[in-house]
Amino acid sequence: MNVFVVNRKKLAVGIVMLMLIAVLAVNKEQAISVITGNLKPIYSVKTETKQVALTFDISWGEENVQPILDILKKENIKATFFLSSPWAEIKSELVKQIAADGHEIGSHGRRHVDLNTMTADILMKELDTSKEVLERLSGQKITLLRAPNGAYDNQVISVANKRGYKVIQWSVDSLDWKRPGADAIINYVMNGRSKNKGASPGDIILFHASDSAPDTPEALPTVLKMLKEKNYEIVTVGKLLSNAQESWPPGSSL
């Protein structure tokens, strides 16, 4: 009788290599991300449905919030609002209205500072505190995070995932915070800028409802009208993810 001695370390390495080969066979870029440990947030998704997600960040002010909510209600559109939790505590009635109107709420952090400058312990506390505040005020389970200024690194993605978040970026930027005027905002969203494209299926569109973006309420009705004319369904991030086949870029995960 032949007796085979299995080296556990070699067996484990072999299993990992087989897994990487399997991933590589499906998606070369995804395999590279697994090997390098280069974690990414979700910028957009691949989907068979003609959907785009509409998102708004809020960190300060209130002048634009009500006009935007009124426009969305008139057009019967649900969006995702990423809220800074200190703002939410001060403007708790607006948070309750956003939730009551059927919009999805995500976290925009505890403070509007770059999360990739924090230690893991401080980052964990920031994310947990923000989640607790937003869940208490909105009555929703908070599972989405948009990092302030879009600043992230592997630690931010890893810690956020462990604390129950998916990290969400954007693939279409309205640049409304630059105050370019309503016409420019409409053009950025629908046609893109420089080498970037305009809205297409699976995109996540970034707007701001803070006072720093005063042109947004003027531009929004036209953007919604043009998207509808192109037969887009305008949805929350959560709904977009639920219909997605996969996320982009490689290194992100649904």
Features:
single chain, 254 residues, alpha/beta, TIM Barrel, 2 domains, two-stranded antiparallel ribbon, 10 helices, 10 strands, disordered N terminus
Oligomer: single chain
Give a short account of the largest sheet: 6 strands, parallel
- What's the rounded overall pLDDT mean? 88
What's the tally of helices?
A: 10
The CATH C-level class name of the largest domain: Alpha Beta
The CATH fourth-level homologous superfamily of the largest domain: Glycoside hydrolase/deacetylase
Percent of residues in beta strands: 5-15%
Write the CATH fold name of the largest domain: TIM Barrel
Which structural class matches the secondary elements? alpha/beta
Q: How many strand elements?
A: 10
Tell me the Rg in angstroms.
20 Å
Structure description:
The structure is a single chain. This protein has 254 residues and is an alpha/beta fold. The chain has two domains: 1-36; 44-248, TIM Barrel (Alpha-Beta Barrel), CATH 3.20.20.370. The chain is 44% helix and 14% strand. Helix 6 crosses helix 7 (154-162). The longest helix is centred in the first third of the chain and has 19 residues, at 8-26. It starts with 7 loop residues before the first helix and ends in a 6-residue tail after the last strand. The relative contact order is 0.21.
Quick summary:
The chain is an alpha/beta fold and 254 residues long. 44% of the residues lie in helices and 14% in strands.
